[in-house]
Amino acid sequence: MTTEARRSQVSEGGIPNAGADVLTVPFGGAPMFTRARALRPTGKVLPEHARSHNRALVLQTLYTSGAQSRADVARQTGLTRVTISDLVAGLIAEGLVIELGQREDARPGKPATLIDVDRAAFHIVGVDLSEHQRFLGAVVDLDGGIVSRAEVALDGATGDAAVVLVADLVRRLLASTETPVLGIGVGSPGVVDPLGVVRSAPNLGWTDVDLQARLHDEFELPVHVANDANVAVLAEHGSSHQDDLLLVKVGHGVGAGLIIGGRPVIGGGFAAGEIGHVVVGTDGGPRCACGKHGCLEAWLAVPRLTAQLDALDPEAADAASAREEILAEAGRRLGIVLAPVVGALNLSEVVLSGPAELLDGALHDATVDTLRTRTMAEHNRDLRLRMTEQAEDVVLRGAAVMVLSGQLGVS
Amino acid sequence: MTTEARRSQVSEGGIPNAGADVLTVPFGGAPMFTRARALRPTGKVLPEHARSHNRALVLQTLYTSGAQSRADVARQTGLTRVTISDLVAGLIAEGLVIELGQREDARPGKPATLIDVDRAAFHIVGVDLSEHQRFLGAVVDLDGGIVSRAEVALDGATGDAAVVLVADLVRRLLASTETPVLGIGVGSPGVVDPLGVVRSAPNLGWTDVDLQARLHDEFELPVHVANDANVAVLAEHGSSHQDDLLLVKVGHGVGAGLIIGGRPVIGGGFAAGEIGHVVVGTDGGPRCACGKHGCLEAWLAVPRLTAQLDALDPEAADAASAREEILAEAGRRLGIVLAPVVGALNLSEVVLSGPAELLDGALHDATVDTLRTRTMAEHNRDLRLRMTEQAEDVVLRGAAVMVLSGQLGVS
DNA sequence: TCACGTTTGTTAGTAAAGCTTACGAACAAA
DNA sequence: TTTGTTCGTAAGCTTTACTAACAAACGTGA
């Protein structure tokens, strides 16, 4: 048998677009995308699914690129003007897109009619349950701008009382806006499953609390609930446009949110990102609330850092350098834990979220340093570690992104 | 404005199937799937893309469930009998599927015509470049069975000479089978980009070697090249049916392959899984070839372990326990590096690949122990660490899976 | 000024894909 | 023999996105 004859009858390229995978909602497929490899096919695809994907694509294009003509969208998406017109007509009928009148600038040809996502059409309610003393909430517009805020003191409330506080907060926020609300997004501490059930949140005394159902039943709006750090990384992903992203959230506890290949990582037990109680190094460390010694949280959590700093004598000659050293040590510990993760995932970007006065200085620098010396420089050359761009509002904004993404397929 | 009026005009469920994402090749979308969250839509979807997905779905169904009737496939996929008949007709015309005659068992109704993937129609050539002294190759059938083997001694060849050896090996394997070959899969050490260019493989003296093009040009068959550990984890994924999987490959070096959410992780610099040179612990360690101290590879690589074991006095009274301790220490070190990764990704399954006489005993047990004590037991309760089920042939079989997956969308 | 080219958005018709409906064939059980 | 079941196929419909063609509206250059 000649080489010629042995050649597979199957076309050289294999199945069309095999190996491509850019799916989104509910699937995807740009022929030129090459990063991911083929997967097991799961579930049929009907024409209407393709339609809803293309619809989301149009929304996404408008959302990120702003006002433009139908023809512009057609060029950008690769769909034809006819198809775009058709999809846009539907979106206008649904009130998601509006016509803005004709384009001003003078060009040859028929003047374009500008269209855009109707950014004033909806608000989103975002809730952040990650703080220790209070719940934060905000009404967020479609661009991620905070329209109004509200908060409620916890006063030690746990269990059902805490759930009631969340509902109260949401009720106040809903009352504060006249604009239709697209949905409610909640970032909760603890382990949250994909259906919005808080499996476990020790601080709040929650076990298997179906927050999604509770809020949905009361407010009859779409509700999305996820872990606070996992929510936070969505906010960062929205602005960073990086496909792989790790966000470390330092507060009363330490948690992480992870996006890989543009996709949030949930974890088999829905506990991805829970690195607070991973033991750091091989030389012991402070005793942690969980009983172990040298957990990341025992090194890095805000209460521990402030306690250490407060114990310093501010009059001492070396007060400043002692402060630096405390923060640098915490940063090194963070670097030690992150190094294997950064190495294994070949991450290109890590984001720190938390009090900038603690994180953004000696701590940050020590973490970078430790990461560089503990991983292979050659592979992680372009690793970036930076502070969040969202300041205090990462979780609130991330909750909004989660709703946006879940309801419109946009982020 | 009443709550009623404020309610979003957008349907409660958001866009159809938003939040669902089960895409495969080139996309997917089972409406009931809930794990992953919505993503940015990327790229349009045309009807023919949907078609090729459904085609792959049929192939996958037949491949994993074996011979069955068209009606069975219809029930299993959710597509109608008509559509299945149509798709199957195409697959039969392409020679990928064959009719096996009527079903034997006595049931009411018209007897079913059994169909199946024509498992004898194609062979796959798999190549494993990860060993230090020789290149391994095999002809693999569609079920992953090894049909024939070949190997070539490296004799210190590097650079282009090594590429020639790969081609020689492939040529011999191709000559050994009369069956049409679906494609060539190669697992190479080092950093390999998604186009099959070996960016860097120090052992082989390769920098930016376009192995995919070299082999494709010579043999005119589909060629897929990837990192050896990343290839190996594909083999394991094929049998384990776990959505999250980490495989640690211990040989002359130490590397890992990672599948998250059913998807191989490549990494921003295509170096995902390169954990061999991550520093372990905070107490120094043996000097590594890379210059650092205490790299995982310096603790765990096979040459280092065998050297340590060989240095033992076999006559000593405590020889056995000394041996155990050496392996246990290596296991602990592995556990220390894996703990942050397991915690951050909430992995449910970790697989060890390498010499069983070294890995499958004290080393394994120490790793499990270390993982348990260094992560949060509550979250990683059902973590499993096990030896590979594929023995020596992980890379060869994984290379076959890669071709199968890339060419047919099946795995 | 006016013909010409360009750009936009729409209309009309076509091709592809999967659906529903309907039917003949083949079998088991009554 | 009758009845009910199952299989695979044929015909026609619906959805979707495409191509082709066109009118409207604009700048440009002779």
Question: Can you describe what's shown?
Answer:
Chains A, B: It comes from Agromyces ramosus. Chains A, B: InterPro entries: ATPase_NBD, ROK, ROK_cs, WH-like_DNA-bd_sf, WH_DNA-bd_sf. Chains A, B: One of its GO terms (molecular function) is kinase activity. The structure is a homodimer of 411-residue chains. With 411 residues, chain A is of the alpha/beta class. Chain A folds into 3 domains: 47-117, Arc Repressor Mutant, subunit A, CATH 1.10.10.10; 123-233 and 394-408, ATPase, nucleotide binding domain (Nucleotidyltransferase, domain 5); 242-390, ATPase, nucleotide binding domain (Nucleotidyltransferase, domain 5, 2-Layer Sandwich), CATH 3.30.420. Chain A is 38% helix and 20% strand. Chain A contains 13 helices and 16 strands. The first copy, chain A, has helices at 3-6, 47-65, 70-77, 81-93, 159-175, 211-219, 228-240, 296-300, 302-310, 319-345, 356-359, 362-374, 394-408, and strands spanning 68-69, 97-102, 113-117, 123-128, 134-141, 146-153, 181-188, 191-192, 197-201, 206-210, 223-227, 245-250, 254-260, 263-264, 349-353, 384-387. Chain A has a 5-stranded mixed beta sheet, sandwiched between helices. In chain A, strands 14-13-12-15-16 form a 5-stranded mixed beta sheet, sandwiched between helices. In chain A, strand 5 and strand 6 form a beta hairpin. Chain A is globular and about 75 Å long. The termini of chain A are far apart. The model of chain A is unreliable at 1-37 (pLDDT under 50). The interface between A and B is large, with 139 and 138 residues. Chain A binds a DNA duplex (30 and 30 nucleotides) through helix 2 and helix 4.
